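#struct-help
A.M.: can someone run this one for me? Single chain, 329 residues.
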Amino acid sequence: MGFRALLTDRDDAGKVSSAVTEIDEARLPEGNVTIDIDWAGLNYKDGLCLTGGGGLVRNYPHVAGVDFAGTVRDSADDRYAVGQKVVLTGWRVGEVQWGGFAERARVNADWLVPLPGGLSTRDAMVVGTAGLTAMLSINRLEAAGLTPASGEVLVTGAAGGVGSIATALLAKLGYTVAALSGRPQHAEALTALGAASIVDRNEFLAQPDKPLESARWAAAIDCVGGKVLGKLLKQVKYDGAVAALGNAAGIGLETNVLPFILRGVTLIGIDSVMQPFDTRIAAWQRIAETFDIAAYGDLVREIGLEELLAAADQILAGEIKGRVLVRPR
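D.P.: on it. Structure tokens below:
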């Protein structure tokens, strides 16, 4: 039985191209659970995979899509039953393994998470890898001592998928959020999500650069890396922490040891790809209890498989706000 997928291939000259293709189910990779995909998400990594960037895809032809949610079609694992709703993020699905830009997927049961009560498969992809990463960041910051009474929390890249959901989650949990963005046209949307103040990225970077700057932030969730991360580290209050999870502004880190040895600042790395099952379950359950899907509605756009290539170019160019959902069927 066939299904539709956005199949990405590379020719002998190294040119990468993609087209919506009918694929026989026998071509699905090995795995013990087959999923009928309801929704997938578009992430920065997907943009790289669809354009051949970053060297993420090693074997072609390939189906990208690093996260998806759907219904179990067939299962050889006792943990999952036919008809059960599940979500998948990480484990290099969509990079090394075939991913969610298709009507069907076959995966290892260990990579799946049962959908928490109260979340539909669409809700799960509004959250997606972005929301999971945001919640993992908040959980780690709180484990390092952050509470709403600690002071302002800065979220960088706040108009993007992770940043916007982090802003909404923090605000719902009672934190005072400052949202940093290079796209002032999204200030109103970020305020609606709960941001108490908006920080213009250009103005932030234009401030005089000192080895140690005035302490302002109790903590930060950094989605962009590069110069922004280097600068904000110098502005974190004593015993504060920064969760670093993105590199849209570059992989370099321009800083010095003073924030660490004079203010005791902690830099926490956040990886959502290889997180253990129990950590995922806890994060998804807290998302289900906290995240206001309806309030996030204006930051969600739905597209089909045929529209993915244009959207991939947009996300790589930093032109996407919020989340883009992909409906394969």
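A.M.: thanks! The longest helix spans residues 121-143.
D.P.: also worth noting: The chain has a mean pLDDT of 95.
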